[in-house]
Design brief:
The complex is a heterodimer. By secondary structure, chain A is an all-alpha fold. Chain A is built from ten helices and no strands. In chain B, strands 1, 2, 3, 4, 5, 6, 7, 8, 9 and 12 form a ten-stranded mixed beta sheet that branches. Chain B is built from 13 helices and twelve strands. The chains are: A mainly alpha, B alpha/beta. The interface between A and B is large, with 34 and 41 residues.
Chain lengths: ~230, ~280
C-alpha cells in the first residue's frame, strides 16, 4: 500500500512542479495520438460510411476483417511497421524509423479499425431508422450520407475518443518503431515501461496516474464540447 | 454555426497536432544526429543520460539511443537501422565485423556480471568457489532461476556458463528454470517477486531500485568479466550511415576525455563501468 500512496504523491508533485521532462513527454504523447486520430478519422469515417450505406460483393467479409483488426496486438503492428520502415524494408529510403512520424503511422493502423467499425455500426442503425424518410425525400446519395453523418456526430465523437484511448495507451508498437529515444520519441507509455524496467515502480505508477489525468482532461474537454453544441441545437 | 468555444477548442487542438513537425521532418539537414543501438544495461544504468549531454555540448552531435538486448541491437544494425553499435558480446560483435556489417570493433569499457538472489540463499551459492559451481548448486537444489531468455548479451553469457558444466537448463524451462524473455530490469522484477536467482550485469543491479531482500550472492569469478565494444556500422554496406558523426562519437568515447567521463559515472557512490580502451 505504501508504494501506491508514494506513487500518488509523486504524481501530484510531478504535475504541480510542472516538471520539464514530464511536460515534454506529455505534449509528445498528445501530439502523436491526436495526429493519429485525426488522420485515422479522415480514413475511417468515409470507409465506415461506405460499409454502412452501400452494398458490394465482399462487404460482409470486409466487416468481419475490420472487427478482427480491432483486436490487433500492437506489437504485431509495431513489427509490421518496423519491417516496412527499416532501411532494409520497402520504405527504408525515407529514413522514418525511430521518428515520431513512424509512431503516428503505427497508431493510425491501430485506430482505423476501431473508428471504422463503430462508424459503420452507428450509421447502419441510423440508416435503417431513416430509410423510408430518406427514400421518400428523393435526395441525391451524397446528401443522404452527409445528413446521416451529421445526425450521428455525437455517436461518432465516441468513436474518435475510443480511437484516442487506443492510441495514447498503447506501448508495444510505439516502443518498436519509435525506439523510446529520450527527447525524441519517448512518450508517456514508453517512459512508464522504462521506469518499471529500472525497478522504479513508484515513478512508473506516478507517470501512469499522470497519463490517466491527461486522458481524463481530453475526455472532459470532448464531453463539454458535445454538451455545449447539443444545447445550442435544442 | 460554430460557436466561439468550439472554434477555440479546435484551433488549440490543431496547434497541438501540427506544432513542431518541421523539426522532425527535416532533422537530417538542420543538425547532426546519429542513432546508437545499444543494450538495456547501459540505458537502465543511466550511463547515457550522463554521457550524451556532455558529448552534445562539445560536438553539437545528438545521439539517439535505441536500447534493446544485444541480439536485437545487432539485428537492428544488420538492417542498417543504426549508425553505431555498443553491445557486450565479443564473439557476436566480431562476427558482425567480419561479415562486413561493421568497420572495426573497439573495446570501450567493462564491468562484471553478478549472481543475485534472495538473502537466505536457498542453494548456498555463497559457499561455492566458482560461478560454474554456483550454478551447479542451483540446479542440484532446483532453486528458481530466472533467465533473460531474450538472446541478449547477458543471456548469451549465462547460457555459456551453464554449458561449462555440461548443463542445458532449457530442458527444465518452465519448472525451476524460468525464461522471462524480457530486459534485465523486468527480469530482476520477476526474480524479486519469485524469490529466485538471476544473473545481472553489475551496473543494472546497482542502479536497480526495487531490490527488497535480494542481494549479490556470488561475484568475482573471471568468467563473469563483461566487456563492452563499440562499432561504427559499415557505410559501404549502408550508404545512409552518418559515418563522420559516428566516427566523432566513437573517437570521443575512446579518447582520454570520454574514458575519464565513463569512469566518473557513479550511482550511490559506486563506479559502474571501468574504461579500458587501448
Amino acid at each position: 500500500m505504501n508504494d501506491l500512496w508514494q506513487a500518488f504523491f509523486k504524481a501530484i508533485s510531478l504535475v504541480v512542479t510542472l516538471d520539464d521532462k514530464l511536460l515534454e513527454i506529455v505534449f509528445l504523447s498528445l501530439r502523436l495520438s491526436l495526429s493519429a486520430v485525426g488522420i485515422a478519422l479522415l480514413i475511417a469515417l468515409p470507409f465506415g460510411a461506405v460499409l454502412a450505406l452501400t452494398k458490394f460483393p465482399g462487404r460482409r467479409i470486409l466487416i468481419v476483417i475490420i472487427n478482427v483488426f480491432m483486436g490487433l496486438p500492437p506489437v504485431v503492428v509495431g513489427l509490421f511497421v518496423y519491417l516496412l520502415l527499416s532501411r532494409s524494408g520497402p520504405f527504408g529510403v525515407f529514413g522514418l524509423l525511430f521518428t515520431p512520424s513512424a509512431m503516428i503511422i503505427a497508431q493510425v493502423i491501430l485506430v482505423v479499425p476501431i473508428v471504422t467499425a463503430i462508424t459503420r455500426q452507428v450509421l447502419e442503425e441510423l440508416h435503417h431508422e431513416y430509410d423510408e424518410l430518406l427514400r421518400s425525400l428523393d435526395v441525391p446519395w451524397y446528401r443522404k450520407v452527409t445528413a446521416l453523418v451529421w445526425d450521428a456526430r455525437f455517436s461518432l465523437s465516441t468513436a474518435a475518443l475510443a480511437g484516442f484511448g487506443r492510441a495514447i495507451s498503447e506501448v508495444g508498437a510505439v516502443m518498436i518503431v519509435g525506439g523510446n529515444i529520450d527527447h525524441l520519441t519517448r512518450v508517456m507509455t514508453t517512459a512508464i515501461a522504462l521506469e518499471a524496467r529500472k525497478g522504479d515502480l513508484v515513478m512508473a505508477l506516478a507517470l501512469g496516474l499522470v497519463l490517466l489525468a491527461v486522458a481524463l482532461g481530453i475526455n472532459l474537454f470532448a464531453y463539454s464540447i458535445t454538451e455545449t453544441v447539443k444545447r445550442r441545437h435544442q | 454555426m460554430i460557436n466561439r468555444f468550439v472554434f477555440r477548442a479546435l484551433s488549440l487542438a490543431s496547434v497541438l497536432v501540427l506544432g513542431g513537425y518541421g523539426s522532425t521532418l527535416y532533422a537530417d539537414e538542420t543538425k547532426s544526429e546519429i542513432t546508437l543501438a545499444s543494450t538495456t544495461s547501459t540505458q537502465n544504468s543511466g550511463l547515457f543520460d550522463y554521457l550524451l549531454p556532455l558529448f552534445k555540448e562539445q560536438t553539437g552531435i545528438e545521439v539517439h539511443v535505441v536500447a534493446v538486448g544485444t541480439g536485437a541491437a545487432l539485428k537492428l544494425a544488420r538492417n542498417g537501422d543504426a549508425d553505431v553499435l555498443m553491445v557486450h558480446h565479443k564473439t557476436s560483435e566480431e562476427t558482425f565485423v567480419s561479415e562486413g556489417y561493421g568497420v572495426e570493433r573497439f573495446d570501450v569499457m567493462y564491468n562484471d556480471f553478478v549472481l543475485v538472489g534472495p538473502d537466505n540463499d536457498p542453494s548456498g551459492v555463497k559457499e561455492t568457489e566458482t560461478i560454474v559451481d554456483a550454478l551447479g548448486e542451483i540446479k542440484a537444489k532446483q532453486a528458481i532461476f530466472l533467465s533473460r531468455g531474450d538472446d541478449s548479451g547477458t543471456n548469451k553469457r549465462e547460457l555459456e556458463l551453464w554449458k561449462a558444466n555440461g548443463d542445458n537448463p532449457k530442458t527444465a524451462s518452465g519448472s525451476w528454470y524460468r525464461e522471462t524473455g524480457s530486459g534485465m530490469g523486468a527480469t530482476l522484477n520477476t526474480a524479486v517477486a519469485m524469490q529466485g536467482y538471476t544473473l545481472s550485469d553489475r551496473a543494472t543491479w546497482i542502479s536497480y531500485k526495487n531490490k527488497q531482500n535480494m542481494e549479490i550472492l556470488f561475484e568475482g569469478d573471471e568468467r563473469l568479466f563483461n566487456q563492452y565494444g563499440v562499432i561504427v556500422v559499415n557505410p559501404e554496406k549502408f550508404p545512409h550511415v552518418k559515418e563522420e558523426a559516428a566516427k566523432i562519437f566513437v573517437n570521443w568515447l575512446l579518447s582520454e576525455e570520454g574514458q575519464s567521463t565513463i569512469a566518473s559515472y557513479k550511482v550511490s557512490g559506486q563506479q559502474l563501468f571501468i574504461p579500458d580502451a587501448k
